[in-house]
Every structure is written in structure tokens, then in C-alpha cells.
Design a protein that fits this description.
With 91 residues, this protein is mainly alpha-helical. It folds into two domains: 51 residues; 30 residues, no CATH class. Helix content is 57%, strand content 9%. The protein has a two-stranded antiparallel ribbon with strand order 1-2.
């Protein structure tokens, strides 16, 4: 038994994407219910990450790929790992 798999092929697995999205919605709702706007903002950010991962999975890109998976093609980098390349160059 391998255990819980969080990432597969450069993206979160479906249950993890759903869990992240639902956690974001719940945090946002709780923050708005109890007038804790910082919690609502955190919920929006967490939910956005979950929705971003879902959209990326639908389109077929891999926004959370490992650094070793970068594929250099001539001048640029494959679209699958573009986000990782941009973050590495800035940080």
C-alpha cells in the first residue's frame, strides 16, 4: 500500500484539488460569517490555488512539476513546467 498520493504528473490529484477548493470556500465563509476578513482573504487564496490546479488539470498543463522535469527546447521551456521555471528565475 503506497499511502496517500498528493501529486501525480506535475499536478495535485483529484481528491486533493477538491479538498483544497472546499477548504478555501469554508475558510472564506467562516471569515465572512464572523467578520474576520483576514481569514476570508486566506480562504480566497486557498480556494484560488485549488481552482487553479483544477483548471490546469483540465487543460493538461503541469504547474507543480519537479525541477528535474524541466525540458529545455531550444530557447524556451515546455509549457508543462513554465510556472516552475518563472519562479526559479525570480527566487
Amino acid at each position: 500500500m503506497e499511502g496517500l498520493v498528493l501529486k501525480k504528473n506535475g499536478n495535485f490529484t483529484r481528491p486533493v484539488r477538491i479538498l483544497i477548493s472546499l477548504m478555501g470556500i469554508a475558510l472564506c465563509a467562516l471569515g465572512l460569517r464572523f467578520d474576520v476578513y483576514l481569514l476570508a482573504l486566506a480562504g480566497i487564496v486557498v480556494g484560488a490555488i485549488g481552482m487553479y490546479a483544477s483548471k490546469a488539470s483540465t487543460v493538461g498543463i503541469k504547474p507543480f512539476c519537479e525541477k528535474k522535469q524541466l525540458i529545455e527546447r531550444g530557447k524556451g521551456v515546455s509549457a508543462e513546467c513554465l510556472l516552475t521555471k518563472i519562479v526559479d528565475e525570480r527566487g
